[in-house]
Amino acid sequence: MTKKVWFQVGIGMIIALLIIKYVVEIHWIFNPFYIIIKTIFIPLLLGGVLYYISEPLQRLMEKKGAPRWGSILTIVLLLAGIVTGILLMIGNPISEQVNNLVENAPNIENSIMEAADFVLDNRDNLPPQVETFVNSVSSSIQDIAMSGSKYIVSFVSGTVAATFTLILVPFFFIYMLKDHEKFAPNIYNIFAGERRTWVKETLADIDNVLRNYVQGQVLISLILATMMFIGYLIIDLDYALLLAIFAFFMNMIPFIGPWISLAPALIIAVIQDPILVVWVAVITLVAQQLESNLITPNIMGKSLDVHPLTVITIVLAAGNIGGFLFIIISIPTYAVIKAVVKNIYEERKKIKEAATKTV
């Protein structure tokens, strides 16, 4: 019985749960490590995204004979030039739209409050489920208003942390460009024989999964945001550039991202002109259909190989567990775990075939 897969998996799960239990009980020992990991995680994540975006260019330049320092310097200067050019091109429009949004914030707030007051005044005529939802939302709004000072302090501290993060990102990015070939060998050289080969192949699969996901998702998000921006300009929607930038970051979340980016666009459309709601919905629907049926299959193909229902489940669970950051990293994390489990299964299959082979 001890050789059965289900028995070994069960024992492994019990041991893992016991380890987690005792780690939680002595968490104070691991607090320094947790703080260190929490501090470097975001810069490491952003540096990794920049690395996977720029790695094809570095590989091409070094294939043409450029030295490593030359390729790194070229990429850094190129990225700096791109960022500067984008800021010069869209900096003024963004600042104008932000100022316009700030100036119109009271009007937007009044419109939202009028709609909310109308719903609250007529909630006795609503179905019981809707009435319960309205009551819960109104109580939540009151709680948020009462704790406003706390959110202001959190915003200030978050701004300081974000500034520190932005300072660290270039260091991680440059060191990844410089020493990325050394990362995997430093891990698989610890092992020997067939185990070393398996670890090497697994790390290569993880690298391919992350590369395909990051490069593909960034390109898809850029295309979708551009399509939405053009659509918003055609219908003359206010704050089109801000909404498109928001859509770019939200589209990093597969399948669900475009619908998340729809919410602020609908709010702006309702306030500006209710008929624009229809056009915003049409633009989002067209962009989503093009993305799912044309853009994603041609850019990412089957490289991620995750069912849409699985994506939705993972994203919802990640949001409840850790918020927006967990939503962003949940899909690539799942893809990495899936690649590791697949390699473990293939290795066990080889061992089993070798053990049952007749000589």
How does the SSE layout of this entry go?
Layout: H1 5-25, H2 27-63, H3 68-121, H4 128-146, H5 148-188, H6 193-234, H7 240-250, H8 257-272, H9 276-299, H10 308-322, H11 324-356
Helix pairs in contact: 2-3, 2-5, 5-6, 6-7, 6-9, 6-11, 7-8, 8-9, 10-11
The fraction of residues assigned to DSSP E strands is under 5%
Mean pLDDT, all residues: 76
Q: If you compute it from the alpha carbons, what radius of gyration comes out, rounded to the nearest whole angstrom?
A: 25 Å
Through-space gap between termini: 26 Å
**Largest sheet, described in full?**
none
Secondary-structure element sequence?
HHHHHHHHHHH
Instruction: State the helix count.
Output: 11
Q: Percentage of helical residues?
A: over 70%
Low-confidence stretches: 144-149
Give the oligomeric state of the chains in this entry, treating copies of one chain as homo and distinct chains as hetero.
single chain
Structural class: mainly alpha
Rough outline: globular
Please tally the β strands and state the result. 0
Briefly characterize the structure.
With 359 residues, the chain is an all-alpha fold.
Overall description:
87% of the residues lie in helices and 0% in strands. The protein contains eleven helices and no strands. Helix 2 packs across helix 3 (68-121), helix 6 packs antiparallel against helix 11 (324-356) and helix 10 (308-322) packs across helix 11 (324-356). The longest helix is centred in the first third of the chain and has 54 residues, at 68-121. Mean pLDDT is 76; it is low at 144-149.
